[in-house]
Amino acid sequence: MSLKPPDLPQDAAYTSHWCEENVYLLIQSFSRDSSLSEDWDVFAVFISNHSKTVALWNQKLSEELGCPVIWDYHVLAVLRPRNISTSVQSWVYDFDTRLGIPVTFDSKLKGAT
């Protein structure tokens, strides 16, 4: 099965340092598309820890390539195919990454750590 992830909407709102708001608005936009909701489950994924120091690589705010950005938390949108028996991967939408939008979940894990 070939299931292409939806493109980032052209009118997607982005405000630096407001990842949760950016993801909320993106998910809201995706939820208005009935064809998307037929094929995809959409999640907001919060990344955090007790020390509020989440290191992510390949972030636009990094001063140098190869250096992480330390967030107190970070929020991503993840789209997972509804038919999880397929070989189609989940896709990550991160407005703050240099990896591209969207990227496969596996690519995000490899590129962010």
TrEMBL record:
It is an enzyme of class 3 (hydrolase). The keyword Hydrolase applies. Its EC number is 3.5.1.122. Residues 14-108 form the Protein N-terminal glutamine amidohydrolase alpha beta roll domain. GO terms for cellular component: cytosol; nucleus. This is Protein N-terminal glutamine amidohydrolase. Monomer. GO terms for molecular function: protein-N-terminal asparagine amidohydrolase activity; protein-N-terminal glutamine amidohydrolase activity. Mediates the side-chain deamidation of N-terminal glutamine residues to glutamate, an important step in N-end rule pathway of protein degradation. Conversion of the resulting N-terminal glutamine to glutamate renders the protein susceptible to arginylation, polyubiquitination and degradation as specified by the N-end rule. Does not act on substrates with internal or C-terminal glutamine and does not act on non-glutamine residues in any position. It comes from the Eukaryota. The keyword Hydrolase applies. InterPro entries: N_Gln_amidohydro_ab_roll_sf, NTAQ1, Prot_N_Gln_amidohydro_ab_roll. Belongs to the NTAQ1 family. It comes from Lentinula lateritia. Keywords: Hydrolase.
